[in-house]
Design the sequence.
């Protein structure tokens, strides 16, 4: 049963039709691009379009790079389902009016058993490997508006077949509609892949609209942040993401998230320890239907 579910996950990643985000209508490939990065984002239900404010914004919304107080480097390890793991790293350089970031995102499926006929032992084992590497640029356009762009190279390899491609993400952040409210929007994965075997893989294009509200006064020792996203993959149904973060004494972070519109997941939770120059975060995302649980660990270091 374990091997069957692993195979289902592998087929889904290749076809982009379900498990990567538990979608139900997807018809694209490179579905690892839908698997969000950063334990903080995951703990908040991936309601992060308007909340990303450090080098992780290179994935979520490049305009969010302007929210970073200083240059920083981030890392994430994602223990997803079974032998499927993801790694993300990004380096951001911040100035008063602009920001530049570089990212590398890898996703790997290990120990795929290869058989030509029914047999107890496989002929060999192989894997599936995916990569996104790119550069992001963000700029402040006046006191209320930030804009950003990410250009990235994409790569996939399954068994002996491989292909590469190029894509763009475009993002905006707007402040000023209401005090303490930030609005964000982004379109991801605009581009094309080269031919994989006999045809090119279709990229999972995604539109996101998000909002973040930071309560101006703490509730006792806890500061509170709320966030919400509407997410529309171009070929799938509309989803809702909702998240909350309570900062106790500005150091201990407690997070809760909810995702609507998915077949196999809904709730998430997380916690973090934040100091001025270092953040350590963890998130937990359970899946239904005996698929297992997802665990993300991330690190932020100010430079």
Sequence:
């Amino acid at each position: 049963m374990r091997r069957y579910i692993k195979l289902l996950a592998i087929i889904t990643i290749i076809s982009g039709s379900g498990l990567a985000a538990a979608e139900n209508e997807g018809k694209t490939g490179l579905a690892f691009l839908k698997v969000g990065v950063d334990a903080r984002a995951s703990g908040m239900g991936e309601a992060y379009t308007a909340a990303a404010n450090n080098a992780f914004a290179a994935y979520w919304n490049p305009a969010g790079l302007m929210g970073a107080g200083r240059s920083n480097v981030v890392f994430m390890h994602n223990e997803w389902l079974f032998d499927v793991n993801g790694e993300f790293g990004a380096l951001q350089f911040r100035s008063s009016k602009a920001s530049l970031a570089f990212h590398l995102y890898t996703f790997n499926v290990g120990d795929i058993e290869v058989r030509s006929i029914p047999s107890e032992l496989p002929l060999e084992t192989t894997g599936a490997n995916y990569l996104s590497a790119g550069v992001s640029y963000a700029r402040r356009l006046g006191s209320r508006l930030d804009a950003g762009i990410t250009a990235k190279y994409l790569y996939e390899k399954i068994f002996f077949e491989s292909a590469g491609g190029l894509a763009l993400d475009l993002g905006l952040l707007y402040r000023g509609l209401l005090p303490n409210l930030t609005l964000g929007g982004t379109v991801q994965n605009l581009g094309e892949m080269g031919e994989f075997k006999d045809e090119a893989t279709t990229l999972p294009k995604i539109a996101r609209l998000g909002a973040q509200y930071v309560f101006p006064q703490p509730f006792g020792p806890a500061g509170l942040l709320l966030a919400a996203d509407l997410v529309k993959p171009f070929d799938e149904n509309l989803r809702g993401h909702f998240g909350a973060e309570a900062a106790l004494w500005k150091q201990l972070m407690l997070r809760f998230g909810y995702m609507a519109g998915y077949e196999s997941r809904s709730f998430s939770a997380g916690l973090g320890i934040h100091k001025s120059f270092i953040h350590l975060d963890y998130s937990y995302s359970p899946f239904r239907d005996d698929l297992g649980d997802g665990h993300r660990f991330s690190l932020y270091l100010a430079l």
